[in-house]
Each structure stands twice: as structure tokens, then as C-alpha cells.
Specification:
The structure holds 2 protein chains of 2 kinds.
Chain A: H1 2-18, H2 20-63, H3 70-76, E1 78-81, E2 101-105, E3 108-109, H4 131-147, H5 152-157, H6 159-165, H7 170-203, H8 208-238, H9 242-271, H10 277-289, H11 300-313, H12 325-362, H13 367-378, H14 383-411, H15 423-428, H16 439-445, H17 447-470, H18 473-476
Helix pairs in contact in A: 1-7, 2-4, 2-7, 3-14, 4-8, 4-9, 7-8, 8-9, 8-13, 8-17, 9-12, 10-12, 12-14, 13-17
Chain B: H1 2-17, H2 19-66, H3 75-85, H4 87-93, E1 96-99, E2 119-122, H5 128-131, H6 139-144, H7 149-165, H8 170-175, H9 178-182, H10 188-217, H11 225-250, H12 256-281, H13 307-320, H14 327-330, H15 336-371, H16 378-389, H17 394-421, H18 427-431, H19 445-471
Antiparallel strand pairs in B: 1-2
Helix pairs in contact in B: 1-10, 2-7, 2-10, 3-4, 4-17, 7-10, 7-11, 7-12, 7-16, 10-11, 11-12, 11-16, 11-19, 13-15, 15-17, 16-19
The chains are: A mainly alpha, B mainly alpha.
Chain lengths: ~475, ~475
């Protein structure tokens, strides 16, 4: 039995490698893969250089700014630059649609600006070539192209009868064909995958998670290709003719890879609408107005706070307090506004994640969506990484503003805006370093996709086996 | 003509019996209707936001102006009066909105309206601190794109055309009817072309019907009949281009399976591969590096405290804007500090302008360079044309930015005039409050015709070769 399976598989391999058309298509896809990798490498290098340079420059500006009042220094602020991740060379994910720069200043949580897509015309919406795009969109087509007639042709040529007469069942024939086809596609892609793997492995030395990410990516895509191979052979086995099989498979591809992803994303935004920037900021301002104005010690709430402090420290005037009341009020205002920002940004992020979850739920039946999500997640170019980056920058902003306010509180006197902080204070604010989500967390976040992909694989194996076994012999000929 | 009718009648009979084809067409129509609904929903939401902003902003402005009559004996009244009467405060507290209203056709082609901002709050502070804003959006949704009518026409219509016409010749061969056709008095190539024309008629009728429904649904007035004709011309030309490509593919006389694969290959080439390659080629960050702008979008603070420094800044300012120089009042001016600050930020803007302009210039240049490939990029070309018609493309985002800059100049002048004259704002001043005027939506005929020209060129080229090849079959 095993021998027969192997023979069938070998025959498939030979058929695939004999077809010049298939080899030509595969060559085109390989070429596209190489172009995508080359272009992405160039993009990564320039982006890294630009952002590293900008980051260094802003850090220098921060460190070497003239001695000034700490709160004024905080207002001068600094910038956060989202680093281009190493794996963005493989899958640039949401990079074109998520702003990468934010201005960090007191009192305000600013937006991330400069989505690269803003600088493009209609063309950008057609997608940008990347290794992931080729693997997600084009390789499934190659699989369909290679295998749509694998069983139907045997039937049309009458060789299926011969196979049956030698005692092989239809499920066994299909299994052999799946093995052969899958082996063929892996062999075709092997040069490119091997090159990419070696490239990543050698370039990403030092960080242990990277190697694992490469393996995970390979496993995910291997599963994805296997799913398409199974589907192709199955459709070929049940279809009346090659043409019919091709039509069915192509319709499936168009639905899975083009229509459903777009339709689902649109429906999710309909179902969980995001606020307009105006309404969002308006709601924040409304809440902040009810709090403490850090710049105004005469404010009613500030007065209440002062009274409380006087009582707490058993003193009569604010001048007797062991710190500058203005600094204290400033930080109290900051803490209040942070609370408001937290409330609203969490709501916003929740809506974003609800939308994302809706899309991901569709990934349970649409493997393209599942793989797209997983691939972006492993490449750290997904929505979670984007939100995580925003949160980490926001924490950094609060930390550095607090540091400035505390310096004002303990080292300056009330009403004295001529106090100047030393450069050592600036240096005591560490530079912002973004550490992306650890792999374990990524896998936990995307376990639904992993499970659904595995379930789809197992389910299709079982289902196809059962169905093929039950087709009456007369229909098979 | 008689042949056409005869063949058309037969094709119609075949078509009505082919449930698969009928159901594909029905599915297409359903997708188109959903797309119109979706476009309506998106643009309606934008319109609602705009309306709300207008209303809130008018209230805020009225509230601020009312401060002129406030009771200045109370602290709150005094503060309200200062906010309205001090030009130095008005330049900070008076907010106006620049609004990019959706054009009538934006419902059918949302274009870049979901990526770019369509409203912007402005006061007379630094322009560049305010110019770079973003609208809240889910990046994954932006990546997936909009399911609007332009998507249905650009992505799905070619698939429909392929599904109907990929086997014009091969089908006859596979059914065994080809020899029968060969012995007809009408040449074979004419029969094939007639079959193609039959489908062209069906698809065009469908396109017209869907467009009519979309226009009525979107409530686009009859005054804009010109838009309707342009829309039909663009989508019709695009469809025609695909028919020509299918004619070319059919003329190679391959089997149905090969034809289907070749057609899908063409679809992939034009809808996925070429645009994706171009985007990769033009996505280098050094081509448009926004990090160079970050210094202009942070708070400026270089103005010294001393009077001498302030006067120096003012002097530099007056040299560029002599209209604001009022020698007699300068010495006793209550607003000297704010004059100096305003002069300082204006000068900072002027200093930033070359870099910001250069940045946009580079983006524009990249856009032009990419447009040079429109001849081999019919899908992107058609989308650009639809966006141009719907005023939702990159060009419109540029125009909006330019009108923002112009409006900011007027708004600044509105505050600077009393500020530098050293006087308070009056009711008469507020009657002159500038109102944002967007550039009126116009149909850029030259650009549309250029784009259409590329489509027609590809159409004629493919049709010519296809027809000649078919002719040689006999």
C-alpha cells in the first residue's frame, strides 16, 4: 500500500516537472519572490537608516537642549519613531496604513502621523508586493494550476480504470496525489524558502525569538499550502471534468482571497463604528475640563487639592510646603488627563480589536484571513503590535513628563518660572526603546488562527476521505 | 446585422439555459448593490460628522464673539471679554474648520478619502503644527480596502467578463460544433466577434442598469448628468478593454482550460502583479521622508525673553510683511509680547515652508512617475480616473492642503491686523471672519481624457491583434 502511494506520488512529481507551463509559472513566482525580498530589503534598510538617524537626532536635541524650566523642556518634547521590524521584510502587514511617528508632549496623547499610504494615489490600495503577498495569493493559484486536473485527467484518459483495477481505492489515489502535488510545490519553492530561511537565520543572530518565528512562519505557510493542495485534489476527484474543477477552484480562490477579506473588513467597520477624530477629541476635552488644569493653580479643584495638602502637611500656606505646589498641581493635572486618555483610548482600542476580532472570526472558515493574520503577527506588523507600540510610547511619555514635573516640584519655588533644569535631568530620562511583543504572547493572542488552521487541515482530511470513500464506483469512472 | 441578431438570439437562449452564468451575473449584481449601500454608509457618516462639526463650531464661535458684550466686572466675564477682544487671544482661541466635502460621486468611488483627513481645525497659530493630522481608522480595514462600486467594477467586472467569454471559440471546438460553424457562409472570425458583441451588449446593459441604480440611490442630482456620462464612459472603456483582451486570448485557439488560466493570468497581472510591483518600486522611504518635517510639527520655543530679541524678531517680520508695521503705536503697545510671538511663529512657518513644500513636491513627483505606467496598468488607471471624477484621489488631498494654507493666511491676517495695530477686536471685525472656501469640484477633462486614452490604446492594440489572428484561422 505504502509503495503504491509512493509510486503515485512520484508519478505526480514527474508530471509536474514535465510540464513546461507549470515550470514557467513557478519560475515567474520564484522571480516575484526574489524581487519582493530584494525590494523589501532595500525598504527595510532605508527605513531603518532614516528612523535610526531621526531617533538619534531627536535624542541629541533632547539631551543638548539649553537649560530651561523642566516643564518648558517637557513642552519641547520629543518624538517616538516606530522601528521597522526585521520581519517586515517578509510581510509588511499594516506598515503602509499605520502612522509611524508621534510627537510626545505634556497634557496630550498625540496621534501617530504620516501613514505612508497618505502619500500615494489609488495604486497603493492594490497592495504592495511582498514575500507574504506572493505566498498568500499567488502560490495557492500555482497549486490550483498544478493540480486541478490531476484526477479528472486520469478519468478523461481512462487511466483511472486501470488504477482501480489494480486494487487501489479512490481515497488512496487522492492521498498519493496530495503527497505528490505537495512534494512538488515544496520542491519548487524550496530554493526560495531555503534562501529566505538562511538569510533570516544568519542576519537575525543574537535574538533567540527570531529563529522560532522563522520556523513558525514556515509551519503556518506549509499548512496553508497543504490545505490548498488537499482542496485541489479533492475537487479534482469529485468534479465532472477538468474545466469544471478549474472553475470551482478558481471561484473558491477568488472568494477566499479577494472578496471575503474585503467584505468582512467592511462589515466589521459597519458593525463596530469608530468615532471620528473630532468626536473622539471632543469627548476627551469634555472629560478633561472636569478635572484639574495643571497650568492653573487658581482652578477650583486645584484649590481643593491645596487645602488637602495644607492639612496633610500641617502648614498654613503653600509656600511652607516642602515642594513647589505648582509642580504638584501640574503633575496632578497630568495624572488626571492620563486617566481620561486611558479611558478613551482604551475604548477606541477596544473597538479596533472588536473589528479585528470580527475579521479574525471569519478566518475560521477562510484560511487566507487566518494566515494573513498569523503572518502579520509573527512579522510584528499587525494591529496588536501597533496598539502595543502606542501603549508603550504613551507610558514613556507619561514617565518623562512626570520626571520633569517632579523636578519642578522639588527644585523650583512657586511662581519661579526662571528656574532652569540641568542637562543631567535630561540625561536621566532614558531613551525610548521599543521591544516588540514576545513570541509566546503573540501565539497566545493568535491561538484561534493556529487552532482553526490545524482544525481545517484535520477536518478536510477526514471529510475528504469520508466523501471520497462514499462516492459510488460508477461515478468514479 | 442580421448575423449579429441571429447569433445573439442563439447566445441568449444558451445563456438563459446556463444557470451557472445566470447565477454569476445575479451574484455580481448583488455585490454591486452591496457596494452602493456601503459607499453610501461611509460617505453619509462623513457627511454627518461634517454637519456636526459645522454646527458645534458655529456655536463655539458665536459663544466666543458674545464675550465682547460680557460683564467685565466679574472674573468670568472679564475672561470671556478678553478671549473675544484681545487679538492675541483670538488667534489662539478662535477655531475654524477647513472641510473637504465629499463630491457627489465619492459614494461610488471612496478612493483615498478614508486615508486622508477630510476636516481640519485651524487657528492662527503655526500652520504646520496643525496641518499634519490623521483621521481615526483601523489600519487592517484600510489595508483590505473599500467594497465600493469602483471596486466591483475594477476587480469583479473583469472576472464576470472572463466567465462569460473565455471559451467563445474553444467551447465550440469542445462541443464539436466548430466544423459546423466552419461550413457556414459567414466567416468564423465574424461569428466569434458577434458572440463577443452579444456579451458586450449584456455587460454594458448591466453596467448601465447598476450605474443608474447607484446614481438614484446615492441621490446624485440631474444637474450632475455630466458626471453620469463620464462615469459610464470610464467604466465602459474599462470593460471594453477587457473584452479586447479576451478577444486576444480567444484568438490563440487554445482549450477552454488554458483560456481560463490565461484570462485569470491577465487579471492577476493587471490587478495584482503590476500594481504590487510598482508599489514596491516606489515605496522607498527616502523618496518621501517625513522625519525631515518633525521639527516643524513640534512646539516652537526659541523666542528669548528680552525686549531686544523681541524687537529683532519683529523687525525681521516687518521686512517680509510690511503691511503690519505701525510705527506710532509700537512703543506703547499692550500686545508687544504677543506681536513678537506671532511674528516668531509666522517666521518659523515661513522658514519651514521650503522643506514642507519640497516634501509634497517629492510625493507629487513620485505620483507622476507612477502615472507614467498607466499604459500597462489599466486597473489602477481606471481607479485613478474614478477617483478623479469623485474628487477622492491624491490630487484632491493636495488641493485641500493648498486651500488650507490659503485659508490659514486669511485667518492669520484676520487676527494680525488688529494685533499689530494694537487695538481690540470689534464686532465689525468678526463680521469679516474668513470662511473656508474649498476649491469647487471640477471635472479635470484633460486628465480624464489622458487616462482614457491609455485605456483606449490598450483596447485598440489588443482588439486589432486579436481580430487579425482570428481572421487567419480560416
Amino acid at each position: 500500500m505504502r509503495k503504491q502511494l509512493l509510486q503515485l506520488a512520484m508519478k505526480e512529481l514527474t508530471t509536474v516537472y514535465r510540464s513546461k507551463l507549470i515550470l514557467l509559472t513557478a519560475a515567474i513566482i520564484l522571480l516575484l519572490l526574489l524581487v519582493a525580498a530584494g525590494g523589501a530589503y532595500r525598504n527595510y534598510q532605508t527605513a531603518k537608516q532614516i528612523r535610526d538617524e531621526a531617533k538619534r537626532e531627536k535624542r541629541e536635541q533632547w539631551l543638548h537642549q539649553d537649560p530651561k524650566h523642566p516643564h518648558i523642556a517637557a513642552h519641547f518634547g520629543t518624538f517616538a519613531y516606530k522601528p521597522k521590524t526585521w520581519f517586515s521584510m517578509f510581510d509588511d502587514g499594516l506598515d503602509n496604513y499605520a502612522g509611524a511617528y508621534a510627537y510626545l508632549e505634556p497634557h496630550r496623547q498625540n496621534d501617530f502621523l504620516f501613514k505612508p499610504a497618505e502619500g500615494h494615489g489609488a495604486g497603493i490600495r492594490f497592495g504592495q508586493l511582498s514575500v507574504a503577498l506572493v505566498l498568500q495569493l499567488l502560490v495557492p493559484l500555482l497549486i490550483i494550476f498544478m493540480g486541478f486536473s490531476t484526477v479528472t485527467r486520469e478519468r478523461e484518459q481512462g487511466t483511472l480504470k486501470l488504477l482501480f483495477s489494480s486494487g487501489i481505492s479512490l481515497p488512496a489515489i487522492a492521498a498519493g496525489k496530495v503527497m505528490g502535488q505537495y512534494g512538488a510545490i515544496l520542491l519548487l519553492l524550496l530554493p526560495a524558502l531555503g534562501l529566505t530561511g538562511v538569510f533570516f537565520a544568519t542576519m537575525a543572530q543574537g535574538s533567540s525569538g527570531q529563529g522560532l518565528r522563522v520556523l513558525m512562519l514556515l509551519a503556518v505557510y506549509a499548512g496553508y499550502f497543504l490545505l490548498f493542495t488537499l482542496l485541489t485534489v479533492f475537487v479534482s476527484a469529485i468534479a465532472k471534468s477538468s474545466g469544471h474543477a478549474l472553475l470551482l477552484l478558481l471561484t473558491g480562490w477568488i472568494l477566499t482571497c479577494i472578496i471575503i477579506p474585503k467584505a468582512v473588513a467592511n462589515m466589521s467597520s459597519d458593525r463596530y463604528p469608530l468615532p471620528a477624530q473630532y468626536n473622539f477629541r471632543e469627548a476627551i476635552q469634555r472629560d478633561i475640563r472636569q478635572g484639574i488644569d495643571g497650568h492653573n493653580t487658581q482652578d477650583e479643584r486645584a484649590q481643593q487639592l491645596q487645602a488637602k495638602l495644607l492639612q496633610q502637611y500641617q502648614v498654613k500656606t503653600v509656600a511652607e510646603l516642602p515642594f513647589n505646589i505648582e509642580g504638584y498641581i501640574m503633575q496632578a493635572g497630568e495624572a488626571y488627563s492620563s486617566m481620561v486618555y486611558d479611558k478613551h483610548f482604551h475604548q477606541l482600542q477596544n473597538t479596533l480589536l472588536q473589528q479585528d476580532r470580527f475579521c479574525r472570526l471569519a478566518g475560521v472558515v477562510d484560511p487566507y484571513l487566518a494566515v494573513q493574520g498569523l503572518s502579520m503577527a509573527l512579522a510584528a506588523t499587525d494591529l496588536y503590535t501597533h496598539i502595543d507600540f502606542q501603549q508603550k510610547t504613551e507610558n514613556y511619555r507619561r514617565h518623562f513628563v512626570q520626571k520633569m514635573n517632579e523636578d519642578m516640584m522639588y527644585h523650583s519655588r512657586q511662581g519661579d518660572w526662571t528656574y532652569k533644569a540641568s542637562r543631567s535631568l535630561y540625561a536621566s530620562v532614558p531613551d525610548f526603546q521599543y521591544h516588540q511583543l514576545p513570541l509566546r504572547q503573540v501565539l497566545a493572542l493568535y491561538r484561534m488562527e493556529l487552532i482553526s488552521l490545524a482544525a481545517l487541515l484535520v477536518l478536510s482530511c477526514v471529510l475528504f476521505y469520508v466523501i471520497l470513500k462514499r462516492i459510488p464506483i460508477i461515478n468514479r469512472l | 446585422m442580421k448575423t449579429l441578431l441571429l447569433i445573439g438570439g442563439r447566445e441568449w437562449k444558451l445563456f438563459t439555459r446556463n444557470y451557472l452564468q445566470v447565477s454569476i451575473i445575479v451574484l455580481f449584481a448583488v455585490a454591486a448593490l452591496y457596494a452602493v449601500h456601503y459607499g453610501n454608509a461611509v460617505i453619509n457618516r462623513q457627511e454627518k460628522t461634517i454637519q456636526y462639526i459645522r454646527q458645534q463650531n458655529a456655536q463655539e464661535q458665536a459663544q466666543l464673539i458674545k464675550g465682547l458684550h460680557a460683564d467685565t466686572t466679574t472674573a468670568a466675564g472679564r475672561a470671556a471679554w478678553e478671549k473675544a477682544a484681545f487679538p492675541s487671544k483670538v488667534r489662539f482661541f478662535l477655531t475654524c474648520y477647513a472641510i473637504d466635502e465629499p463630491a457627489p460621486l465619492a459614494i461610488l468611488s471612496i478612493g483615498q478619502r478614508d486615508v486622508n483627513v477630510y476636516y481640519l481645525p485651524l487657528n492662527a497659530q503655526n500652520l504646520y503644527l496643525q496641518l499634519f493630522r490623521s483621521e481615526i481608522a483601523n489600519p487592517r480595514k484600510l489595508l483590505a480596502g473599500n467594497f465600493d462600486l469602483s471596486f466591483v467594477i475594477i476587480y469583479l467586472l473583469p472576472l464576470l467578463i472572463i466567465a462569460c467569454t473565455y471559451n467563445l471559440l474553444s467551447d465550440e471546438q469542445e462541443r464539436g460544433t466548430l466544423p459546423l460553424l466552419r461550413i457556414q457562409p459567414v466567416p468564423l472570425h465574424r461569428i466569434i466577434i458577434c458572440k463577443l458583441l452579444f456579451w458586450l451588449g449584456i455587460i454594458m446593459a448591466l453596467l448601465c442598469l447598476i450605474s443608474c441604480i447607484a446614481f438614484i440611490w446615492a441621490d446624485i442630482s440631474l444637474v450632475d448628468a455630466g458626471y453620469f456620462l463620464w462615469w459610464l464612459l470610464i467604466s465602459g472603456s474599462y470593460a471594453l478593454c477587457w473584452f479586447a483582451l479576451l478577444l486576444l486570448i480567444n484568438s490563440f485557439q487554445q482549450s477552454s482550460a488554458i483560456n481560463a488560466l490565461a484570462s485569470l493570468g491577465a487579471w492577476l497581472l493587471f490587478l495584482v502583479v503590476i500594481p504590487a510591483l510598482l508599489n514596491l518600486a516606489f515605496s522607498d522611504e527616502s523618496q518621501a521622508d517625513p522625519t525631515k518635517l518633525t521639527d516643524y510639527i513640534r512646539r516652537q520655543q526659541g523666542l528669548g525673553e528680552s525686549k531686544q530679541e523681541k524687537e529683532e524678531v519683529l523687525e525681521r517680520f516687518y521686512r517680509i510683511y510690511p503691511q503690519y508695521r505701525h510705527r506710532d503705536t509700537a512703543a506703547t503697545n499692550p500686545f508687544l509680547e504677543f506681536q513678537a510671538y506671532s511674528a516668531y511663529v509666522t517666521l518659523a512657518d515661513a522658514e519651514a515652508k521650503p522643506s514642507v513644500d519640497a516634501y509634497f513636491q517629492r510625493i507629487r513627483r513620485r505620483h507622476t512617475q507612477m502615472a507614467a505606467f498607466h499604459g500597462i496598468n489599466p486597473a489602477v488607471n481606471a481607479q485613478e480616473l474614478m477617483n478623479t471624477l469623485a474628487s477622492s484621489g491624491l490630487e484632491n488631498a493636495f488641493a485641500f492642503r493648498a486651500s488650507i494654507a490659503a485659508f490659514h493666511r486669511r485667518l492669520s491676517h484676520f487676527c494680525f491686523e488688529p494685533l499689530f495695530a494694537g487695538r481690540f477686536m470689534t464686532k465689525a471685525d468678526f463680521r469679516q471672519l474668513p470662511v473656508f472656501e474649498p476649491a469647487p469640484p471640477t471635472v479635470n477633462t484633460g486628465k480624464l481624457l489622458r487616462g482614457l486614452g491609455w485605456l483606449w490604446l490598450l483596447t485598440v492594440f489588443s482588439a486589432f491583434i486579436g481580430r487579425n489572428r482570428l481572421r487567419t484561422i480560416a
